[in-house]
């Protein structure tokens, strides 16, 4: 991440997921890192990460056990938060397995309060709404920095597409709670693994950026293929994701098994993704009107953020036409 441009591009956290713990706490009821996987302990790992100019994140669960069966924080919240602060953790994901979900409405805010009381800036990622049928997003947005809304992503196009459809279906409710410091989280980028073609990887990167999603890579950066690395390091699309206005975008049109996603940016421009969900064997020609794209009718400078072509002055008149690869986008 440091040497190959990811840190410079804006990826500045490294987070360890579940299974980092020993199965039992020590005699003082403190968490213990797996002695074989982390023989020097978590503080030494955090120090190493910080020495590279990165921030360090870790996983826990607001339950008796984590989702994989390791010790959870329930009943040990104060000592665990103190431990995380002593380890100089910068990011905590708190999952929601092995606990009555009715406790979330008080438990997640209480844990966040303990984090704040340490005096250490710690990004707080909650899984609170992913486990509830009618989550209280007003409280979630007040108490969490980001939150998982939906089920875990899998390494497949079907999973990416299902998450996109769920966000589109629920967008009118979700967008009200997204903004600087508090974000909806559709889960990790799976770009560069086995489940997505290059076109599909470009779809995930673009739509996640329009959703103002936290961009968390989940891939072996030592073996990633150059074309997928290029997608992850696309500075124009990262700039869309990190736009300071912080306004989450929307799916504004769907038809013919295609979709248009639109995000208004702080400089008055628009990021638009034309997505082809069709799986037939040829590019599909999509014609989109200003009404379809939900943008004012005027003359625009249009830039293809993947091809990095020069800005072109376009009089769109009453429609914009493009050909899109199957399960790809423009």
Automatic annotation (TrEMBL):
EC?
3.2.1.-
Q: Where in the cell does this protein reside?
A: Lysosome
Molecular function, one GO term: alpha-galactosidase activity
Q: Which Gene3D superfamilies match?
A: Aldolase class I, Golgi alpha-mannosidase II
List the InterPro entries hit by this protein, alphabetically.
Answer: Aldolase_TIM, GH, Glyco_hydro_27, Glyco_hydro_27/36_CS, Glyco_hydro_b, Melibiase/NAGA_C
Write the record's keywords in alphabetical order, separated by commas: Disulfide bond, Glycoprotein, Glycosidase, Hydrolase, Lipid metabolism, Lysosome
Q: Name one GO biological process term.
A: glycoside catabolic process
Per the record, its GO cellular-component terms are: lysosome
Domain Alpha galactosidase A C-terminal: start-end pairs: 246-328
Pfam families, per database record: Melibiase_2, Melibiase_2_C
EC category name: hydrolase
What does the subunit comment say? Answer: Homodimer.
Its family? Answer: Belongs to the glycosyl hydrolase 27 family.
Descriptive protein name: Alpha-galactosidase
């Amino acid at each position: 991440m440091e040497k190959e441009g990811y840190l410079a591009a804006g990826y500045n956290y490294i987070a360890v997921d579940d299974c980092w713990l020993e199965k039992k706490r020590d005699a003082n009821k403190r968490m213990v890192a797996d002695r074989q996987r982390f023989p020097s302990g978590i503080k030494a790992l955090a120090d190493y990460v910080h020495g590279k100019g990165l921030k360090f994140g870790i996983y826990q669960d607001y339950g008796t056990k984590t989702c994989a069966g390791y010790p959870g924080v329930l009943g040990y919240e104060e000592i665990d938060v103190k431990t995380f602060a002593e380890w100089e953790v910068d990011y905590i994901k708190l999952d929601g397995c092995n606990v009555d979900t009715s406790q979330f409405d008080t438990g997640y805010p209480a844990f966040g309060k303990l984090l704040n009381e340490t005096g250490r800036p710690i990004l707080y990622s909650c899984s609170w709404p992913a486990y509830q049928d009618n989550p209280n997003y007003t409280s979630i947005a007040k108490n969490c920095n980001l939150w998982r809304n939906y089920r875990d992503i899998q390494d497949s196009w079907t999973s990416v597409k299902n998450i996109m459809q769920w966000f589109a279906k629920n967008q009118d409710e979700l967008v009200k709670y997204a903004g600087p410091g508090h974000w909806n989280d559709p889960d990790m980028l799976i770009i560069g693994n086995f489940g997505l073609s290059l076109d599909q990887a470009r779809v995930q990167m673009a739509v996640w950026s329009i959703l103002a999603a936290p961009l968390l890579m989940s891939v072996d950066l030592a073996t990633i293929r150059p074309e997928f690395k290029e997608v992850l390091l696309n500075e124009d699309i990262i700039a869309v994701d990190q736009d300071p206005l912080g306004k989450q975008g929307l799916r504004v049109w769907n038809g013919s098994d295609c979709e248009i996603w639109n995000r208004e940016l702080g400089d008055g421009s628009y990021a638009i993704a034309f997505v082809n969900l069709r799986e037939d064997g040829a590019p599909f020609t999509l014609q989109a009107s200003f009404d379809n794209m939900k943008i004012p009718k005027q003359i625009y400078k249009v830039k293809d953020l993947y091809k990095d072509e020069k800005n072109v002055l376009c009089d769109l008149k009453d429609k914009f036409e493009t050909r899109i690869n199957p399960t790809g986008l423009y």
